[in-house]
Design a protein that fits this description.
Length: 290
């Protein structure tokens, strides 16, 4: 064995399936990577490092590394102390997720520490407009390419896009060490006011208090927005409360929800400079029971 993936995985208390789920691959691939049957490319290293909450360099073992008592090693840190990760840094919080079913084929790439650059094509104009707002106002760089069964309706493509983006966020967050964790935003748009609060807790939950007076926006059924937020919250591991406090224009109402998610998420995933190496929970881990 020429790498430390298995050792690091066990230190994280993960089985192959659980690690695979975190980084959007299969347990079989993890097995190949651990055994050296699959080449450990830069992309795989970044994904594994994000999933294991370590640096990419930690994955590569020296020839004697496997005989070293790993229990004596210091705990792995998701991020170095000091300045936040930046481009070219091996601690980049990035992820790529490909999700293929008989209903949809979706590819998502994102960088949590981006500048809000986006390239979004879901085949649904209104959804593209919303995802562009999400990127622009969260400063998450976001690429989404989705091909879905739009000849049926927008349901599968909308929901699966939420799942894929949520999975990418979860993957890029790794063990969630150093993050601020909570975020909140009030977003006014003309006559509309919406509040979004969230906890990037690894505890998926959606509260959705948003009503629409019209059945459609563009080609999109307004009932699908709840489906997108539900799918995103579940896959990203976020407790997400969305409430439209008042508003009339349906476009404003839904757009304020996405902008609120963006601004609240931007706060919550920001690295807290006073606690950059700690998981923000008294349990020492995010997720599980209270
Ligand atoms: Mn708009």
């Amino acid at each position: 064995m020429t790498n430390n993936i298995r050792t690091l995985r066990k230190q994280n208390g993960l089985n192959q399936q659980e690690l695979a789920h975190r980084i959007g691959t299969t347990g079989q691939q993890i097995g190949h990577l651990e055994a050296g049957r699959r080449k450990l490319t830069q992309d795989w290293m970044e994904r594994l490092a994000a999933g294991l909450g370590c640096g990419a360099a930690d994955l590569l073992g020296s020839p004697s590394a496997n005989s070293v008592d790993t229990t004596a090693r210091p705990p792995q840190k998701a991020f170095p102390k000091g300045p936040r990760p930046s481009a070219g840094d091996i601690f980049m919080r990035t992820a790529t997720v490909e999700r293929r079913t008989k209903e949809t084929q979706i590819k998502v790439a994102l960088n949590l520490d981006g500048t809000g650059e986006y390239s979004v094509d879901t085949g649904i104009g209104f959804l593209d407009h919303m995802l562009e707002q999400l990127s622009r106002h969260s400063l998450i760089d976001l690429e989404v390419a989705a091909k879905g069964d739009l000849h049926i309706d927008s349901h599968h493509t909308t929901e699966d896009t939420g799942i894929a983006i949520g999975e990418a966020v979860a993957q890029a967050l790794g063990n969630r060490a150093g993050i601020t964790r909570y975020g909140a935003a009030y977003i006014p748009m003309d006559e509309t006011l919406t509040r979004v609060t969230l906890d990037v807790s690894n505890r998926p939950y959606l509260i959705w208090k948003v009503d629409f007076s019209r059945p459609k926006l563009g080609e999109m059924d307004t009932e699908l927005f709840k489906e997108w937020f539900q799918a995103f919250a579940q896959a990203a591991g976020i407790t997400l409360h969305v409430e439209n406090i008042y508003g009339e224009n349906n476009h404003h109402i839904v757009e304020s929800c996405y902008k609120g998610l963006a601004r609240a998420l931007r706060q919550a995933i920001d690295i807290d400079p006073r606690k950059s190496d700690a998981v923000p929970s008294t349990k020492g881990v995010l997720g599980g029971s209270l």
